[in-house]
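Query form — protein Peptide ABC transporter permease

QUESTION: What is the three-dimensional structure of this chain?
INPUT:
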Amino acid sequence: MPKFVFLWTDVALFLLVAGVLGYAWRVRRSPALRATWARVGRDAPAMSSAVILLAFVAVGLLDSIHYRPQLPPAPGAPADAPPIYAPAVRSALDGLLDGTVLARPEKTYSAPLAARQFTKETELIDGQPVRDFPRLRSGGAHLAEPDTERWPDALRRLAWGLAGGAAAALAGGVLLCAGLARGRASWRQALADVAGARTDMPWRAMWITFALLCLVVGAVAGLATGYHVFGTDRTGNDVLWQALKSVRTALVIGSLTTLAMLPPAIGCGIAAGYFKGRIDDAIQYVYTTLTSIPGVLLVAACALMMQVYIDSHPDLFDTSAARADLRLFLLCMILGLTGWSGLCRLLRAETLKLRELEYVQAARAFGVSHWQIMRRHLLPNVMHIVLITVVLEFSGLVLYEAVLSYLGIGVDPSMNSFGSMIDSARLEMSRDPMIWWNLLTAFVFMLALVLAANLFADAVREAFDPRARRYRPARLAEAGAAPVADAGAPR
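ANSWER: The structure tokens for Peptide ABC transporter permease are given below.
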């Protein structure tokens, strides 16, 4: 039985998931929130992006279940001896990748789908030194003649992977139609509605995205059974494995940093706009001073002080993973506590407007306390700004982590991140021949994550911002009704 390890960011991520589920339960019980989120659910690009984001979240959560494997008992140990656990911390994602080539490092660089090393070495063949490209330890190791058998074997594995992805996509379509058929006359009617995009939610677009995702994952999984799909880096580690492990780092940076900035931003923004006067002047002075300091220098100074504390107290960490995780957690706190001024400005401006409305004035006339007014009347009416800012800040923070890691003040060097991958590719692009696959893999994964987050954030902004409601007559026209504007749109 392995020993489960609960790191700081693991606990924070699962608490965040519990908070999202709690918010979903609240949305289900609130007609106003349910109607607003229904507008997001009718946006095809947003829901297609949500499918991709859920795939990234699944990878991140699998990589957040950490444990230390139990080692076999030492020879001659008594039967009642306490179990011994490995010093290295593994995750559930590592366990899933154990049967693939991704978890087997090579000696140094190898190109994508290669069977030989990228650089030449001197080998002894029949007692004579020969300069040649040596065979890889794992990639294409099953081939007897890699020069002639590699591409037919790769195409065969690719076909099997695509077949598995197509089967998963069809299974998902069957489950979707089975779920929709309960509210319709038959399976045929449910299938026709999905195919004709005559459903409230864009199930057709979501299924197409899911099918394409299944095909891509199936193809990569099929090739990964015998080859390094995206090659290996200078130390021989698989590039695709590093990209999958970097997903969790990006999710932690984007989510925990956003949550860290909410308390000071909400508290100071509402207090400044509601009380005005000296309190407003003091809060403005604080965030104006904070924004006057170059952000990278402020984060670098805080990160260096944090690193000095970690280096001075090695007895606080029983594994290197705990040390690297604490640095990541503190980096999120630093970014959040130094980046709340923008949201604070927005909330202050909105609160200045809300405090002059009739219901706030009536509450003050009836003697309601300032705390109750801010909690019950002002906070609910600025939450749409908070939610919009949260979803918009996520993608920016993912990119910011890449910049910090590139500068050497980001995550721990032992932790995988997209910034570390880009940093290690600096000199690789200037080699001859050029090593391009490390940078390209990080770019593709970051593009997919940030683009999906931005598309979903745009839909949330348009749904929660009354001035951004869109005119959507398509479904009404298909139903035979005259097209009308959104009921919540301004006239």
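ADDITIONAL NOTE: The domain at 245-464 is CATH 1.10.3720.10 (MetI-like fold).
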